[in-house]
Automatic annotation (TrEMBL):
It is found in: Cytoplasm, Cytoskeleton, Cilium axoneme. InterPro entries: CFAP91, CFAP91_dom. Residues 4-156 form the CFAP91 domain. Pfam families: CFAP91 (PF14738). Its main location: cytoplasm. Belongs to the CFAP91 family. It comes from the Eukaryota. This is Cilia- and flagella-associated protein 91. The keyword RNA-binding does not apply. Keywords: Cell projection, Cytoplasm, Cytoskeleton. GO terms for cellular component: axoneme. The lineage of its organism: Eukaryota, Metazoa, Chordata, Craniata, Vertebrata.
Amino acid sequence: TLGTQTDYRDGEAQTDPYSPEYIVHSDSVPEILTLATLTWGRGLPAGQATMEIIDRIREKHAWEAALPPMDSPSNIAKRLKMMEAMERKEWAYREEEIDKLQKVKMEVFKKMLQRREENQNELNAMRLNNHWQNHQKAKEEKIRKIQHDCALMLRKLIAKRKNWMGKLERRDIIREYNDFSSQTYAPLSQIGFFPDNSSDYYAVKNFYLNTFAGLCELEKSIQSSAQSSVFPLKIKAPKPKCTITKTGYIKRSGRLEAVLAQVHQ
């Protein structure tokens, strides 16, 4: 009924299986001992390439067991011939492995080149888009300036066409005063009129208000003529607001006024 909890995860626990004791004879090498150094992630689980290597090792062990002994010249020649054939076979297998590895590297290299080319194309497209937008803005600004200059030249041509003969015209005062955009109401500074220079033209200038002597004279005239009606001031005191209701309670505004008076004191 008791439960236990370890300080380690199951994946971190020791998973070495039970290995019974064994004795190896001096003249034998068990094949299973070649798998003793393999662990999970390092040789295990075995894949197709690993199984091919194991089959080749088995074939080599069988070939070594089938080699003739070196007890006669014929056996020696036969042994050398078999070794040369096995060496050619191993070199052919090695060349095939190198070809496979080169093909895999070539595929990876092609994918990397393709990915780099795609990224470069995206970067070039973005740069071209920015360049195109900048040119579009410059073109729109140039078109706007051309249109503005065109409108200005058209207005000048229309103004010149009104009096293309260069005849002198009599001033029409009624038309000038009827048109609020004429030189009468809004004269231009290019013809010599500067409204800021005479800005104080419409300012009120009074001797009695702007000078001390005028103020003294104004005060004397007021005292002599209407002293009784100017200086006395009649101020009515404001009536106090009713702070008590009909039922005899003090209003909230009255309570606040009392608190403010107490704080003021």
